[in-house]
Amino acid sequence: MNEPTSDPIVSPQLSPGPVVPRRPAPPQSPSGPPYPDALMPQTNPWAIVSLCASLLAWCGLFGIGGLIGIITGIVARNEIVTSYGTQTGEGLAIVGIILGAINLLFTCLVASCIFSVFSALLAGL
After folding, report:
1. Whether this model's pTM surpasses 0.90
2. How far apart are CA 4 and CA 61, in angstroms?
3. CA 30, 34, 36, 39 torsion: positive or negative?
C-alpha cells in the first residue's frame, strides 16, 4: 500500500531542469568596463535642440526659434521621463521651454504693437 506509483501527478520526480549554456564573460579592457556607454546615462538630443533653438530665438529667429524650442522641449521631457533613468537633460529641456515661451510671448506682443501702429498710421491717411 505504501509503494510509490509511477504517475507523475501523484508522485512527482525531481528533474534537474533545462540546461542553460553559460555565456562567456565580455573581454575586459585595461582602460575600464567593457561597455562604458551602457553604464552612463546619455543627454537627450531633443533637450539640446530645445535649448539651442530657444537661445537662437533671442538672437534673431524670433517666433520660429521659440516655437521650435517649446515643441522639442516637450518631446525631450516626455522621452526623458519614459527612459527610466537612461537619459538626462530634463533641466535643459525645461530651460528651453521657458525661454521659448517667453520669446514667443514677447514676439506676439511686439507684432501686435507693430500691427496696431501700422493700422493707426493707415487710418490717419
Report:
1. no
2. 85
3. negative
